[in-house]
Amino acid sequence: MTRGNPFRAPSSRKRRKVSKWGDRIFLALTAVGAAGVIGILVALVVVLYHGSLPIINALGIKFLYTQTWNPYGNVYGIVPFAIGTLLTSAIALLIAIPLSIGAAIFLTQHAPTWLREPVAQVVQLLAAIPSVVYGFWGLIVLVPIMRYDVDPILANVLGWTGWFSGRHIGLDVLTASVVLSIMTVPTITAISKDSMMAVPRSQKEAAISLGATDWEVTRRAVIPYARGGIIAGVVLGLGRALGETMAVTLVIGNANVIPTSLFSQGQTIASLIANDFFEQETPLELPALLEAALFLLIITLAVNIVARWILARFEAGRAVGAE
Amino acid sequence: MKFNRATRRKLFSHGMTVLTGATVVLVLIPLFWIIYESAILGASVFSLGFFTQNIPAPCSPHPGVTCSTNGVGSAIQGTVYLLLLAALWAVPVGLGAAIFAVEYGGERAIARVISMAADVLSGVPSIVAGMFIYALLIVYYPLLVFSVISGSLALGVIMLPIVMRTSEEALRTIPHSVREAALALGISRWKTSVRIILVAAMPGVLTGVLLSIARAAGEAAPLLLLDNGSLHPCMSVDTVCQSLSLTIYLGATSPSQNWVSIAWGAALILVILVLGLSIVSQLVLNRTARKWGQVG
Amino acid sequence: MAIPSVGVKMDVQHLSAFYGEHRAIEDISIPMADREVTAIIGPSGCGKSTLIRCLNRLHETAPKTRVEGSVFLDGDDLYRLDPTVVRRRVGMVFQKPNPFATMSIYNNVSAPLRFNSRPSREVMDQTVLRALKQAALWEEVRDRLDSAATSLSGGQQQRLCIARALAADPEVLLMDEPCSALDPIATSKIEDLISQLKSNYTVIIVTHNMQQAARVSDNTAFLYLGKLIEFGPTEELFERPKEKLTESYITGRFG
Domain boundaries in chain B? Predict the structure, then answer.
């Protein structure tokens, strides 16, 4: 049982009343912000789905496996663009991964400490350059080089694989992949670098004390430990590559067909939307583009979520194993 | 020298060191190449008038005709309006979400949900954001579908997660002891959040805003859909206006030589802008980290 | 339980506090005498910090915390009042000095005024002067009130925090191990300070330093594993402890 204090008269000090309204309004305002972030994410899916309903109702699941895109014939299939997207992203990663991991290795294992952060930050500037600038530069500077210098060599040396067949005009899947690879490098490098820096010294010392060379330490102690983070970085880079629009649409040749060689003109889902948006001749074309946008949204979100999940698991595993 | 296995391993290791060093150089080549091309080709059209005069009619030089590369004044104006309108809604919402996550969410699950939502949102392709706003407005406000306003809505969607995450990081660097000191003085919760914590985190917050603006300034994909087609100076924000990023696209897709040159000028402006803002923000973030180490 | 002969300023009754499921302090009742120094001692983990943080309702700002029981200040149940009001009547100084790093000395001390009541410049100047003098810091900083608070030494920063707390004109001043981050000279300056402060304020101090408790306090409470073992006038508790546990702690057999 509680009782009041019998010894003392109430304090005679005058205190100003404190209003609860400041705190309440503030809580409400910030909660609106929080709800906004989550709400926009949800709205993205809902609105795009709603806009695609006409074509979902008309074609249903056929949209996902039809191999042609012909608005006049009311034939809409995402396959050519899904292939274009996957192909360009895959080749971009093929080029970017060794370069990025190599750079991360040099920065964390070999570069002097004072050089590491400045150079890493310069590499990050690659991520700051706008996509349209990459596309413009790619078109004006890179395409002629690909067309007249690089492609002939590739056709000669690797033509037997069948991937480098056909006329090469420089505006093709290959050039788009090269531009994409440059844009993906900063993402993979940054996360790989952070992951490698998180490798505890004890791991490296164990390898060194067994007489391993620098490279062997990297290969057998650092990279396996940092593997989770590196993979997360690659997947995150993939997510970026999947959604790139301007850089791709300016150099890929904009042909709504399945590419048959790396020198083919092609189209990604993102470049399709950019390219065909203003050519809506038939009534189903806009909903089809909206469904393409929804499709792209879902795969980029999924890839992003997977990447962050891998990263979270990697960081949790580190915390558990840390000394 | 004995060419035994040990030496071979050492040589290989040295070789790999050189190889990885080469990759750093390789990776940086495109960066400097783009900066170089933009500088050379862009600066050639630079003049005082370049920033104020408007985009001229397209033309390609041939005998008897000189083409003007007047300027990108209308584009700069359009970009400024876009960024202002986008920041107008994206910064308060992002900052509010960050404050909510840090002050009211703290360590709880709700804070992580909001952070995760922002991270996921940052992975949305900008063209998808453009289509989203298009689909939204065509139903609810068709008059505004093609305008600076709708472009700014899409750009805001891009800016929002950047503002939110950088503000959240900035707020979280303020040590708990500061909050406790303020609360223990009987300062109300909202004043502690705004006038003490937020003020202390302001450099980081502003940096985030600047970074988001740099990112939005370079975006072209949503504008291609929503704010495309005009060459004239911006009359009002409920119509379509030119922008720097679309000027580049214009130059890329046009056969007219003067438009290509103008596009390089616009590209140089954007490159200077984003590189400058990136460097400034790095410096600010480094300074702030040092200041809080001096307490106690 | 010894009831002090002077008035009771702050009456803790059957107080328990929880972090989630873990009970940090259990059924603690202590009458804190008006304008006297009450020390709370005990080994690490005994709950003394938790206890003192319940007295200005700072404990509940941590996640998943809960409090049972009551704390009365001049008859007002602190847990029925607005926490912000409570903290204006009950000030606190922390273990690690925490001046606002982005503010000057003057702005630190005047912070409670600037944020809470917004008086005129004159009133602020007077209050800052009064508070800095009470904290025995005035002479050292009078010429550099506008310089950064972080330019002060550790001991000076702590006195700055005391001045800041006093500027808010509290009735009770809580001190959570105020000297543990300071060197011996700074410590003794603050101990002198405490003896002067009690003429105007009720002081409650948590300390892991028994000699300090013996030096500065009028009453002492000994806590062990979250429970109050013994409470009484300092001299009695140290020279003629009633509980075996108290005696063991005081003679250094543990803690």
Answer: 75-294
